[in-house]
Amino acid sequence: xxxxxxxxxxxxxxxxxxxxxxxLLIVVLLQxxxxxxxxxxxxxxxxxxxxxxxxxxxxxxxxxxxxxxxTYVSNLADGDAGSSNRTGVPITTIVGDRVGVxxxxxxxxxxVSTLLAVPAALLMALRPRSLRxxxxxxxxTIVLNCPVFWVGLMLASLLALGTGWLPVxxxxxxFEGHVRSMILPWLTIGLAGTPLLARSAAASLRQVLAADxxxxxxxxxxxxxxxxxxxxxxxxLPPAITLLAFQASAMLFGAVVVEQTFGLxxxxxxxxxxxxxxxxxxxxxLTLIFxxxxxxxxxxxxLAVALLDPRTTWQ
Length: 315
Prior knowledge:
The protein is mainly α. It has twelve helices and no strands.
Protein backbone atom coordinates (compact mmCIF):
# COMPACT_ATOMS: atom_id res chain seq x y z
CA UNK A 1 0.00 0.00 0.00
CA UNK A 2 1.33 3.42 -0.98
CA UNK A 3 2.08 6.16 1.54
CA UNK A 4 -0.91 8.18 0.30
CA UNK A 5 -3.29 5.27 0.76
CA UNK A 6 -1.87 4.50 4.20
CA UNK A 7 -2.45 8.09 5.27
CA UNK A 8 -5.97 8.01 3.87
CA UNK A 9 -6.87 4.81 5.74
CA UNK A 10 -5.26 6.08 8.94
CA UNK A 11 -7.19 9.34 8.66
CA UNK A 12 -10.48 7.52 8.22
CA UNK A 13 -9.74 5.31 11.23
CA UNK A 14 -8.90 8.34 13.37
CA UNK A 15 -12.18 9.98 12.36
CA UNK A 16 -14.03 6.99 13.82
CA UNK A 17 -12.47 7.43 17.28
CA UNK A 18 -14.57 10.46 18.38
CA UNK A 19 -17.70 8.81 16.96
CA UNK A 20 -17.05 5.71 19.07
CA UNK A 21 -16.41 7.92 22.10
CA UNK A 22 -19.80 9.61 21.63
CA UNK A 23 -21.44 6.20 21.21
CA LEU A 24 -19.88 4.98 24.46
CA LEU A 25 -21.06 8.11 26.25
CA ILE A 26 -24.61 7.59 24.97
CA VAL A 27 -24.50 3.98 26.14
CA VAL A 28 -23.42 5.07 29.62
CA LEU A 29 -26.11 7.76 29.75
CA LEU A 30 -28.69 5.25 28.54
CA GLN A 31 -28.88 3.81 32.03
CA UNK A 32 -29.71 7.27 33.38
CA UNK A 33 -32.34 7.94 30.72
CA UNK A 34 -34.26 4.67 30.85
CA UNK A 35 -37.34 4.71 33.11
CA UNK A 36 -37.07 3.01 36.45
CA UNK A 37 -34.34 2.72 39.05
CA UNK A 38 -31.70 0.17 37.95
CA UNK A 39 -30.65 -0.47 41.53
CA UNK A 40 -34.25 -1.13 42.60
CA UNK A 41 -34.77 -3.48 39.64
CA UNK A 42 -31.66 -5.50 40.50
CA UNK A 43 -32.36 -5.56 44.22
CA UNK A 44 -35.99 -6.54 43.76
CA UNK A 45 -39.27 -4.91 44.81
CA UNK A 46 -39.01 -6.15 48.41
CA UNK A 47 -35.46 -4.94 49.03
CA UNK A 48 -34.84 -2.45 51.81
CA UNK A 49 -33.44 1.01 51.25
CA UNK A 50 -30.05 -0.15 52.54
CA UNK A 51 -30.01 -3.08 50.11
CA UNK A 52 -30.91 -0.81 47.21
CA UNK A 53 -28.13 1.60 48.13
CA UNK A 54 -25.66 -1.28 48.35
CA UNK A 55 -26.65 -2.47 44.88
CA UNK A 56 -26.30 1.09 43.61
CA UNK A 57 -22.76 1.23 44.98
CA UNK A 58 -21.91 -2.19 43.52
CA UNK A 59 -23.12 -1.07 40.08
CA UNK A 60 -21.21 2.21 40.37
CA UNK A 61 -24.47 4.14 39.96
CA UNK A 62 -23.63 6.54 42.79
CA UNK A 63 -20.60 7.86 40.88
CA UNK A 64 -20.47 10.75 38.44
CA UNK A 65 -21.09 10.22 34.73
CA UNK A 66 -17.38 10.70 34.04
CA UNK A 67 -16.47 8.03 36.60
CA UNK A 68 -19.08 5.65 35.18
CA UNK A 69 -17.77 6.29 31.67
CA UNK A 70 -14.20 5.56 32.72
CA THR A 71 -15.17 2.39 34.57
CA TYR A 72 -17.29 1.12 31.68
CA VAL A 73 -14.56 1.71 29.10
CA SER A 74 -11.96 0.12 31.39
CA ASN A 75 -14.12 -2.96 31.88
CA LEU A 76 -14.74 -3.24 28.12
CA ALA A 77 -11.01 -3.05 27.50
CA ASP A 78 -10.61 -6.02 29.86
CA GLY A 79 -13.32 -7.94 27.98
CA ASP A 80 -15.90 -7.51 30.74
CA ALA A 81 -19.27 -6.22 29.50
CA GLY A 82 -21.05 -7.05 32.73
CA SER A 83 -23.75 -9.59 33.52
CA SER A 84 -27.48 -9.81 33.05
CA ASN A 85 -29.61 -8.47 35.89
CA ARG A 86 -32.15 -11.21 35.25
CA THR A 87 -30.03 -14.33 35.04
CA GLY A 88 -26.53 -13.32 36.12
CA VAL A 89 -25.16 -14.78 32.87
CA PRO A 90 -22.18 -12.83 31.46
CA ILE A 91 -23.20 -10.61 28.58
CA THR A 92 -20.35 -11.96 26.45
CA THR A 93 -21.96 -15.42 26.76
CA ILE A 94 -25.39 -14.05 25.80
CA VAL A 95 -23.98 -12.26 22.76
CA GLY A 96 -21.92 -15.28 21.73
CA ASP A 97 -25.01 -17.52 21.81
CA ARG A 98 -27.17 -15.13 19.76
CA VAL A 99 -24.95 -13.12 17.45
CA GLY A 100 -24.71 -15.94 14.89
CA VAL A 101 -28.47 -15.85 14.26
CA UNK A 102 -28.47 -12.09 13.65
CA UNK A 103 -25.39 -12.21 11.40
CA UNK A 104 -26.87 -15.07 9.39
CA UNK A 105 -30.14 -13.17 9.05
CA UNK A 106 -28.30 -10.04 7.89
CA UNK A 107 -26.11 -11.85 5.34
CA UNK A 108 -29.01 -13.82 3.89
CA UNK A 109 -31.20 -10.71 3.74
CA UNK A 110 -28.50 -8.75 1.90
CA UNK A 111 -28.04 -11.57 -0.60
CA VAL A 112 -31.79 -11.79 -1.28
CA SER A 113 -32.08 -8.02 -1.55
CA THR A 114 -29.14 -7.83 -3.97
CA LEU A 115 -30.40 -10.70 -6.14
CA LEU A 116 -33.78 -8.99 -6.45
CA ALA A 117 -32.56 -5.40 -6.75
CA VAL A 118 -29.84 -5.82 -9.41
CA PRO A 119 -32.07 -7.13 -12.24
CA ALA A 120 -34.79 -4.66 -11.26
CA ALA A 121 -32.31 -1.76 -11.37
CA LEU A 122 -30.91 -2.88 -14.74
CA LEU A 123 -34.42 -3.18 -16.16
CA MET A 124 -35.50 0.26 -14.95
CA ALA A 125 -32.25 1.87 -16.10
CA LEU A 126 -31.88 0.23 -19.53
CA ARG A 127 -35.58 -0.04 -20.46
CA PRO A 128 -37.25 2.71 -18.39
CA ARG A 129 -40.29 3.08 -20.66
CA SER A 130 -41.04 -0.60 -21.11
CA LEU A 131 -44.12 -2.20 -19.64
CA ARG A 132 -42.01 -4.52 -17.47
CA UNK A 133 -40.02 -1.59 -16.05
CA UNK A 134 -43.19 0.33 -15.17
CA UNK A 135 -44.72 -2.76 -13.57
CA UNK A 136 -41.51 -3.36 -11.63
CA UNK A 137 -41.54 0.22 -10.36
CA UNK A 138 -45.12 -0.10 -9.15
CA UNK A 139 -44.40 -3.37 -7.37
CA UNK A 140 -41.41 -1.78 -5.64
CA THR A 141 -43.58 1.13 -4.53
CA ILE A 142 -46.12 -1.25 -3.01
CA VAL A 143 -43.43 -3.26 -1.19
CA LEU A 144 -41.78 -0.05 0.06
CA ASN A 145 -45.00 1.02 1.77
CA CYS A 146 -45.60 -2.33 3.45
CA PRO A 147 -44.42 -2.68 7.08
CA VAL A 148 -41.75 -5.31 7.60
CA PHE A 149 -43.79 -7.33 10.10
CA TRP A 150 -46.77 -7.35 7.70
CA VAL A 151 -44.58 -8.68 4.88
CA GLY A 152 -43.37 -11.40 7.23
CA LEU A 153 -46.89 -12.33 8.25
CA MET A 154 -48.07 -12.48 4.63
CA LEU A 155 -45.13 -14.67 3.62
CA ALA A 156 -45.79 -16.93 6.59
CA SER A 157 -49.46 -17.23 5.62
CA LEU A 158 -48.73 -17.98 1.97
CA LEU A 159 -45.57 -20.11 2.14
CA ALA A 160 -45.83 -21.72 5.57
CA LEU A 161 -49.43 -21.99 6.70
CA GLY A 162 -50.78 -22.31 3.17
CA THR A 163 -48.43 -25.03 1.99
CA GLY A 164 -46.69 -26.44 5.06
CA TRP A 165 -43.36 -26.28 3.25
CA LEU A 166 -41.67 -24.06 5.80
CA PRO A 167 -41.89 -23.52 9.57
CA VAL A 168 -43.79 -20.44 10.73
CA UNK A 169 -41.28 -19.59 13.45
CA UNK A 170 -38.49 -20.85 15.64
CA UNK A 171 -34.93 -21.74 14.73
CA UNK A 172 -35.18 -25.44 13.98
CA UNK A 173 -32.72 -28.17 14.92
CA UNK A 174 -29.51 -28.88 13.08
CA PHE A 175 -28.16 -27.18 9.97
CA GLU A 176 -31.08 -28.17 7.75
CA GLY A 177 -33.58 -27.02 10.36
CA HIS A 178 -31.76 -23.70 10.74
CA VAL A 179 -31.80 -23.09 6.98
CA ARG A 180 -35.49 -23.92 6.63
CA SER A 181 -36.31 -21.65 9.56
CA MET A 182 -34.34 -18.77 8.03
CA ILE A 183 -35.89 -18.83 4.55
CA LEU A 184 -38.94 -16.75 5.47
CA PRO A 185 -36.93 -14.25 7.55
CA TRP A 186 -34.42 -13.91 4.68
CA LEU A 187 -37.21 -13.24 2.21
CA THR A 188 -38.89 -10.79 4.58
CA ILE A 189 -35.87 -8.63 5.32
CA GLY A 190 -34.61 -8.96 1.75
CA LEU A 191 -37.92 -7.81 0.25
CA ALA A 192 -38.07 -4.91 2.68
CA GLY A 193 -34.67 -3.68 1.52
CA THR A 194 -35.15 -4.27 -2.20
CA PRO A 195 -37.16 -1.14 -3.22
CA LEU A 196 -34.68 1.45 -1.96
CA LEU A 197 -31.70 -0.51 -3.23
CA ALA A 198 -33.23 -1.06 -6.68
CA ARG A 199 -34.39 2.53 -7.15
CA SER A 200 -31.10 4.02 -5.99
CA ALA A 201 -29.06 1.64 -8.14
CA ALA A 202 -31.27 2.43 -11.15
CA ALA A 203 -30.73 6.16 -10.62
CA SER A 204 -26.97 5.61 -10.39
CA LEU A 205 -26.99 3.52 -13.57
CA ARG A 206 -28.96 6.20 -15.42
CA GLN A 207 -26.33 8.76 -14.45
CA VAL A 208 -23.61 6.48 -15.80
CA LEU A 209 -25.61 5.93 -19.01
CA ALA A 210 -25.66 9.69 -19.56
CA ALA A 211 -21.86 9.96 -19.26
CA ASP A 212 -19.86 10.82 -22.36
CA UNK A 213 -17.78 7.64 -22.45
CA UNK A 214 -20.92 5.47 -22.33
CA UNK A 215 -22.58 7.52 -25.07
CA UNK A 216 -19.47 7.06 -27.18
CA UNK A 217 -19.41 3.31 -26.56
CA UNK A 218 -23.06 2.98 -27.55
CA UNK A 219 -22.51 5.02 -30.70
CA UNK A 220 -19.78 2.54 -31.65
CA UNK A 221 -22.29 -0.30 -31.44
CA UNK A 222 -21.53 -1.62 -27.96
CA UNK A 223 -24.68 -2.83 -26.22
CA UNK A 224 -26.11 -5.57 -24.06
CA UNK A 225 -24.00 -7.38 -21.49
CA UNK A 226 -20.62 -6.11 -22.82
CA UNK A 227 -21.80 -2.51 -22.28
CA UNK A 228 -23.09 -3.35 -18.82
CA UNK A 229 -19.94 -5.21 -17.79
CA UNK A 230 -17.33 -2.82 -19.18
CA UNK A 231 -18.91 0.53 -18.44
CA UNK A 232 -22.07 0.45 -16.32
CA UNK A 233 -21.26 -1.92 -13.47
CA UNK A 234 -17.69 -0.75 -13.05
CA UNK A 235 -18.65 2.94 -12.81
CA UNK A 236 -21.79 2.32 -10.76
CA LEU A 237 -19.99 0.10 -8.24
CA PRO A 238 -18.75 2.80 -5.79
CA PRO A 239 -22.20 4.32 -5.12
CA ALA A 240 -23.65 0.81 -4.98
CA ILE A 241 -21.23 -0.13 -2.20
CA THR A 242 -22.20 2.97 -0.22
CA LEU A 243 -25.85 2.06 -0.71
CA LEU A 244 -25.25 -1.53 0.42
CA ALA A 245 -23.63 -0.26 3.63
CA PHE A 246 -26.63 1.98 4.27
CA GLN A 247 -28.93 -0.94 3.48
CA ALA A 248 -27.08 -3.21 5.92
CA SER A 249 -27.36 -0.55 8.63
CA ALA A 250 -31.10 -0.27 8.04
CA MET A 251 -31.41 -4.06 8.11
CA LEU A 252 -29.95 -4.10 11.62
CA PHE A 253 -33.05 -2.30 12.83
CA GLY A 254 -35.27 -4.43 10.62
CA ALA A 255 -33.67 -7.53 12.12
CA VAL A 256 -35.16 -6.61 15.50
CA VAL A 257 -38.67 -6.71 14.01
CA VAL A 258 -38.06 -9.82 11.89
CA GLU A 259 -36.57 -11.77 14.80
CA GLN A 260 -39.60 -10.90 16.92
CA THR A 261 -41.99 -11.83 14.11
CA PHE A 262 -40.48 -15.28 13.53
CA GLY A 263 -39.29 -16.02 17.07
CA LEU A 264 -35.60 -16.16 16.20
CA UNK A 265 -33.15 -16.22 19.16
CA UNK A 266 -31.02 -13.33 17.90
CA UNK A 267 -29.68 -10.10 19.35
CA UNK A 268 -32.80 -8.18 18.34
CA UNK A 269 -35.09 -10.46 20.31
CA UNK A 270 -32.74 -10.26 23.28
CA UNK A 271 -32.70 -6.45 23.09
CA UNK A 272 -36.50 -6.24 23.16
CA UNK A 273 -36.70 -8.71 26.04
CA UNK A 274 -34.00 -6.92 28.04
CA UNK A 275 -35.62 -3.53 27.56
CA UNK A 276 -39.02 -4.88 28.65
CA UNK A 277 -37.51 -6.36 31.83
CA UNK A 278 -35.24 -3.37 32.61
CA UNK A 279 -32.09 -5.43 32.14
CA UNK A 280 -29.89 -2.35 31.80
CA UNK A 281 -26.47 -4.00 31.31
CA UNK A 282 -27.78 -6.09 28.42
CA UNK A 283 -29.51 -3.08 26.84
CA UNK A 284 -26.28 -1.09 27.13
CA UNK A 285 -24.14 -3.83 25.59
CA LEU A 286 -26.50 -4.54 22.69
CA THR A 287 -26.94 -0.83 21.95
CA LEU A 288 -23.17 -0.55 21.80
CA ILE A 289 -22.91 -3.58 19.49
CA PHE A 290 -25.56 -2.28 17.07
CA UNK A 291 -24.03 1.19 17.05
CA UNK A 292 -20.49 -0.11 16.53
CA UNK A 293 -21.73 -2.38 13.72
CA UNK A 294 -23.27 0.59 11.89
CA UNK A 295 -20.08 2.64 12.31
CA UNK A 296 -17.96 -0.26 11.06
CA UNK A 297 -20.16 -0.87 8.01
CA UNK A 298 -19.99 2.77 6.98
CA UNK A 299 -16.23 2.87 7.55
CA UNK A 300 -15.66 -0.22 5.40
CA UNK A 301 -17.90 1.18 2.67
CA UNK A 302 -16.04 4.49 2.75
CA LEU A 303 -12.69 2.72 2.40
CA ALA A 304 -13.94 0.40 -0.34
CA VAL A 305 -15.36 3.27 -2.39
CA ALA A 306 -12.12 5.21 -2.08
CA LEU A 307 -10.05 2.19 -3.13
CA LEU A 308 -12.28 1.28 -6.08
CA ASP A 309 -12.96 4.76 -7.42
CA PRO A 310 -10.22 5.71 -9.91
CA ARG A 311 -10.96 9.39 -9.32
CA THR A 312 -9.71 9.21 -5.71
CA THR A 313 -6.63 11.31 -5.09
CA TRP A 314 -4.33 9.89 -2.43
CA GLN A 315 -3.06 13.13 -0.93
